[in-house]
User: Fold this.
Amino acid sequence: MCDPADMTESLVVGQVMAVLTGDQSRRYLPAVRLDNHTSHKRFQVEMNLHDRYVAVNLPSGQYRLSHVQIGEGPFMSMADVSMIFVVDVPVSTYVGTWRLGVKSPYYGRMIVVSVFADQAEAVRVQDFLADEYPALGGCPVLETLLQAAQLEIRLYEVMPYPRYPRDFRRH
Assistant:
């Protein structure tokens, strides 16, 4: 069962979806970077294609979603964002669904980051926690959404990984 005295970190649960809003159908694997305002520690969270939810243990504090990174095979694009949320230790935190709407790969490419939550999804998150983290049974789950519910920002190209030959680079 849940004992708040034993908890030193909070389990933060959410869903991250990358969707293409343009006319092409490529798959994108998103990654997000979180910064803790007080300790200035950075946390990189990468998603797999088959993960429905993302769960990460974080110490209490105020966090900022600082970067969104989209992988397109050997190519990467990154956007600087600033969306804030708070994590409290004695409870698990549900941060909603983060939808990354990636526009078609043209010059001046944009991404729309939106955050939302609904009651049906909150119930599914409770079921996910009961299945994957049975030790947290009985712990309250606090729902907190990022401040700034929607942003539209520019995606910038990041150099490909060094293991790819120069022929695959866009420039």
Remarks:
- The longest strand covers residues 75-87.
- The CA atoms of residues 27 and 113 lie 17 Å apart.
- Residues 119-132 form the longest helix (14 residues).
- The radius of gyration is 17 Å.
